[in-house]
């Protein structure tokens, strides 16, 4: 439900994520055994749009347990740093990095709020700042986020953001065909659903989540306002999960609407560069 932002929203969200780390690390959704054996956690369009990362430094904001972060290291990034506000998540990521024989100078992880990233990470600027799917909805202030991002991208470097499309949060959950929720709402979305996207039946105690919807125009405008040049905005007709019952899994692993239904964007991606003289 939409509601004014609860005073304890940050503590509620962190308690929720802290509790779910063990569930995610042990479950089939993240499948850490397959990851250790070489499975890539990144999506094909992310790899194509980011391009060659060999020899480059990369900062991953809101990294959770670090699979995407460490995948960039496997693709040749000279140094990756992951940041997350959940201490159990960061400890899990550090253990995972050690199990892959990645030394701290190649892959390190920091416990900090994303808004405090500039003071918390080991380097002042990075070739690439990366944010993966399901991150922006946890942040109430995109202007502050964009300022943080811009301060961490070196001149000539770029932000790469992949996210679920905000339009998907406006449609009815049953069919995904009717506009039910306000696209431009600035209220928080407060939910108390138990379990987790990785295991709907998991027994959990800390179930409150507080999230925000950010229209696409707000995201692009926030990046432009801090001097980043938007190189592209791509919208994708596929999702990572069955957001609506009508979505069907395709051989490439993505979920899409059937061919007889009009398509809508389910994910989007942005690359925004800091000018070399900026």
From TrEMBL:
Example GO BP: methylation
Domain Methyltransferase: 59-157
Source organism, top-level taxon: Bacteria
Gene3D superfamilies (UniProt xref): Vaccinia Virus protein VP39
InterPro entries xref list: Methyltransf_25, SAM-dependent_MTases_sf
Gene Ontology MF annotations: methyltransferase activity
Keywords attached to this entry: Methyltransferase, Transferase
Record carries keyword NAD: no
Keyword check for Cell division: no
Listed PANTHER family: TRANS-ACONITATE 2-METHYLTRANSFERASE, TRANS-ACONITATE 2-METHYLTRANSFERASE-RELATED
Name used for this protein in its record: Methyltransferase domain-containing protein
Source organism: Streptomyces halstedii
Source lineage: Bacteria, Bacillati, Actinomycetota, Actinomycetes, Kitasatosporales
């Amino acid at each position: 439900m939409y509601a004014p932002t609860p005073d304890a929203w940050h503590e509620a969200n962190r308690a929720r994520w802290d509790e779910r780390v063990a569930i995610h690390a042990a479950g089939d959704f993240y499948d850490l055994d397959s990851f250790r054996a070489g499975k890539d956690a990144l999506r094909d369009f992310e790899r194509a749009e980011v391009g060659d990362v060999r020899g480059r430094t990369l900062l991953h904001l809101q990294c959770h347990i670090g699979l995407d972060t460490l995948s960039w290291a496997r693709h040749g990034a000279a140094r990756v740093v992951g940041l997350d506000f959940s201490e159990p998540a960061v400890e899990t990521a550090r253990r995972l990095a050690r199990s892959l024989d990645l030394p701290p100078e190649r892959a390190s992880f920091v416990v900090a709020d994303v808004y405090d990233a500039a003071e918390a990470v080991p380097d002042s600027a990075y070739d690439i700042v990366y944010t993966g799917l399901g991150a922006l909805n946890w942040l109430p202030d995109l202007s502050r986020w964009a300022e943080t991002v811009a301060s961490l991208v070196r001149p000539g470097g770029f932000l790469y953001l992949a996210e679920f499309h905000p339009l998907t949060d406006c449609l009815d959950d049953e069919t995904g065909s009717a506009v039910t929720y306000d696209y431009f709402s600035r209220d928080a979305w407060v939910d108390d659903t138990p379990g987790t996207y990785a295991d709907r039946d998991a027994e959990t105690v800390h179930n409150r989540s507080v999230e925000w919807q950010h229209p696409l125009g707000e995201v692009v405008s926030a990046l432009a306002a801090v001097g980043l040049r938007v190189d592209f905005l791509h919208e994708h007709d596929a999702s990572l999960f069955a957001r609506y019952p009508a979505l069907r899994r395709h051989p490439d692993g993505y979920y899409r609407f059937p061919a007889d239904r009009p398509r809508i964007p389910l994910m989007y991606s942005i690359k925004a560069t800091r000018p070399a003289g900026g």
